[in-house]
Amino acid sequence: MKSLLTIALLIISNAFMTLAWYGHLKFSELKWFNKLGLISIVLISWGIALFEYAFQVPANKLGFKGNGGPFTLIQLKVIQEVVTLIVFAIFTLIVFKTETFRLNHLISFLFLILAVYFMFKK
């Protein structure tokens, strides 16, 4: 149960972080957003990223073996990176219609899945 909750929190966390890091590239299509300076955009992104931390920190605390969770620190990091790339890929395909998903992307995801497999192999 802790492992599923940890992964769910990481997915939510990464959704907010992806929006904070890359959302402004799409928001620039809005007229009012184009009037904002870089400082304003950074502050908006920080506001969104605050929600990322609200989910990321509990995910790590709950999931870390040292706190009674199921994952080592290295395993948590690998899971987090895979979740980040999957969330980013989905976000990109949904929000940015000009991006395409190619065979080389699929192959790279396969290698990420293999990385997770080897991370958990004893």
Automatic annotation (TrEMBL):
Keywords on record: Membrane, Transmembrane, Transmembrane helix
Keyword Transmembrane helix: yes
Protein known as: DMT family protein
Coiled coil residues, start to end: none
InterPro entries for this protein: DUF486
Chain ranges passing through the membrane: 36-55, 76-96, 102-120
PANTHER family given in the database record: DMT FAMILY PROTEIN
